[in-house]
Fold these 2 entries.
Entry 1:
Amino acid sequence: MDDERINFSALEVPAGRWEALVQRTLERSRPAPPTVWTQLPRLRGAVFALAALALLSWVPALSWSNDELAETAADPAVALMQYSVSGDPTALLESAHGW
Amino acid sequence: MAAPLPPEVVLRAQQGDRAAIEALVRRFLRPAYLVALSVVRLPAEAEDLAQESVASAMRQLEACREPARFAGWLLTQVRNRALNQLAARGVRQRHADSVQAAEQGADDLERVVLRQQLLAALEALTAQQREVVLLHDMESWTHAEIATSLGMSEVNSRQVLSVARKALRAKLTELDNGGTGHG
């Protein structure tokens, strides 16, 4: 076996230049600021809660009877909700005429 | 010889610990440079490749699934990047760059000559032989470290080192005697 090391000192990078290389590498090693997309998995709890809240806000509207909606049909917001539930634009048009 | 870096350092770096990231850069930039040098055989280009590869690896540390095998993971990225760069260039251009880079990077004529002779002698080896001899003789890695990082056995690492040294000495002697090994 050949146990004597080869002298590669001529290939060594001078110390000052090497430290500059280390510093440049460290500067470029900083991770990019997180994007919304990369943050999404971390925010999934909040996203789920907001989605659940939005869904729950629709439940009372779905359970309202048409009579209850008709009583307040003059209200544009209720008319819009009634239209979204029934698909009938009448209440919406009546409400618009009343403005 | 540098002390082996515990996998905990990689784990801390993965969590964004700047001190751990700096420890990894300082520990592995030189091996990365040597692996790049073993592929492209141009010191200046190897420096750029090492910098780019290590910085890129630090930015995507979460991709390193086995912190205990961090060295192998990193050096594989360096090797692949260097091979891609090598493939993108012509051999003729590479040789011209080699002479120019060697002359610009050295301090004096003797160093330039030595540097050119070493680079020319390294051309006589395979890429794997170059990696083993550079990591062992320049970075003082043990055969166990080389075996783990390069995916070979320790016995194989010893054999490769021995063959590489013999080939290098023969080539350097030939160049010293005025051989035409520069190509």
Note: The helical segments of chain A are 15-28, 36-39, 44-63, 66-71, 76-86, 90-98.
Entry 2:
Amino acid sequence: MNDSPLVTSALFHIGPVAISAAVVVTWALMAGMGVGSWALTRGLSRRPGKAQCLLELLVETLDHQIRDTMQVAPQRYRALIGTLFLFILAANWSALIPGIEPPTAHLETDVVLALIVLAASIGYGVATRGLAGYLRTFAEPSWVMVPLNLVEQLTRTFSLIVRLFGNVMSGVFVLGITLSLAGLLVPIPFMALDMLTGAIQAYIFSVLAMVFLGAAVESPPASLSPEHKES
Amino acid sequence: MTLDWWTLGLQTLNVLVLLWLLSRFLFKPIAAIIAERQRAANRLLDEASAAKDEARKLRDASDQARAGANRQRAAALQAAEVDADQARRLRLQEADAEIARRHRQAQEALHAERQRLQAITEERAGRLALTIAGRLMQRLPESARVEGFIDDLVDGLASLPAETRRSLAQSDAPLRLKAPRALTETERDALQAALRRVLKTPPEPLVIVDPELIAGLELETEHAVVRNSLRADLARLQTEISLHDLEQS
């Protein structure tokens, strides 16, 4: 563990590229999630097993959340929201493995996630409303609100970064202190609390991402897709 | 607090790659299988609905066919009852006719058997009577078996029509005279005299002995027969008795 959680140190270098521990853990998580997804979905059938039922429950719950929060058809945003949730959850829970520091406890990862949400909201907004239409949303309800809306874009992105970073980093910090004081049994409640905090933060980050994306693509109910109407 | 730009860039790339990986290997397959199952369920529901409609149509058609079959069965049953009733009546009529025919045949057979038995009985009675009469006549004198019958024979000839008597008198054929025994000379003369009284010029009689006569004389020609014997009397009596019995039965 680093001496300060606010400092990112290189674990090794590939040429001029400094590879930090967060990147390595992220690669491990990517490998595990990618291979796991491939392994779990290569034998899908109409008569699902327990694992397939669990995966379908996850996807349908995700779709319901997107539909309820964003009021749009979920399939366009399913991959982004789902990836954010699963990655943050896996990253947060990776702290339970001894010697592993979660990538979300480092500012760079949280900045990347928040910037992706910001870019997605801009991209989906422009794709849905058009560039002019998207820009007009900054002048709603009046032109006076343009500066405030611009600041809001930055502040809510910043809030995403700080919320996730602060919670996860503090959990890791507390767990590190506890381990240094009492290494046996005492850290277990803190680890459970860390799991709960990690799950909640993953859920909050995903919900906030949906809220921001929903605000960007907000449209009259008549524009809902047929799938949404049928469901 | 500082940002490591290499880490920032690599994490950006990592998250985007992870986004593609999960989208490609997790969310799309799962969503596809869910959609496929939903389509299959919808298709099954549509097929079930179509099958239900088809079953309802088949049931209606079956009900109609069953109602038609019931009507046909009732009509066929009624027709069969009528036919059976007619056949029963016809069979009864045939049975009645057969019974009547057999009854008639039995009556006829019974009547024929009665007549046959009666004829046998009569024949036996006649024979018995002839036997009795013959035995009785044997107790009488031999002359009584012929002489007493000559006058009656003449009376029989006299009762014949005149034309018949004339043809008898003019006939070239002899008169066949049956007698229970050979006539004596006296009896032959008396008979010739009696015939001459009736026929004037009678031909010579040819006497034929027939013991069956018992007593009496019988004259046979081509044109007439005169029965004048105890056998003829018994036969006539027997016939009258038979007729009387038949009238009573």
Note: The mean pLDDT of chain B is 87.
